[in-house]
Amino acid sequence: MTAWKNQRGDVPVGCLLGFVVLVLIAIFAMSAIPAQLKLGDFEKRIEELADRANRREYNDERIKRDILAKAKDLDFDLPEKNVEIDRNDKRIKIRVHFVQVIQLPGYEWVRPHDIRLERPIF
Predict the structure, then answer these.
(1) Is 52 exposed, middle or buried (0-12, 13-18, 19+ CB in 10 A)?
(2) Helix (H) or strand (E) holding 18
(3) Does the global pTM surpass 0.85?
(4) Residues linked to residue 46 through DSSP beta bridges, in sequence order
């Protein structure tokens, strides 16, 4: 009669290593995915503001103020000097550069972002 290896309490090393890798990926994903969703929400708001630039009430100061308010809502450390708006008769260019810090267990991941957006003004 042959005995199974599992009956002796043996655990394959590959299974343990796979489980450890899976746990590490899950920990990374739990920190990185919400940060990426925040960034997408921020970029979407910048696009909305750029699309509204042709309206009279959306001047450069209001667009800058709305961008900074959204960054504050999302807990981004965005200084006012890092928001640049260049507008002429036909186009608006918005550039926002900042650093996003993602806290991982035992590590701090620093992600620099440089968002550049250019839209026509009708």
Answers:
(1) middle
(2) helix 13-51
(3) no
(4) none
Query: Measured between alpha carbons, how far is 84 from 18 in angstroms, rounded to an integer?
Result: 47
Please state, in angstroms and rounded to a whole number, the distance separating the CA atoms of residues 66 and 60.
10
Query: Cα–Cα distance between 87 and 9 in angstroms, integer?
Result: 71
Pairwise CA distance, residues 104 & 63, whole Å: 33
First-to-last C-alpha distance (Å) of the chain: 84
Bridge partner list, 71? none
Residue 117, classified by CB atoms within 10 Å of its CB into exposed (0-12), middle (13-18) or buried (19+), is middle
User: pLDDT tens digits, residue range 2-34?
Assistant: 655 555 666 678 888 999 999 999 999 998 999
- Kindly list the domain boundaries of the chain, sorted by start residue: 35-120
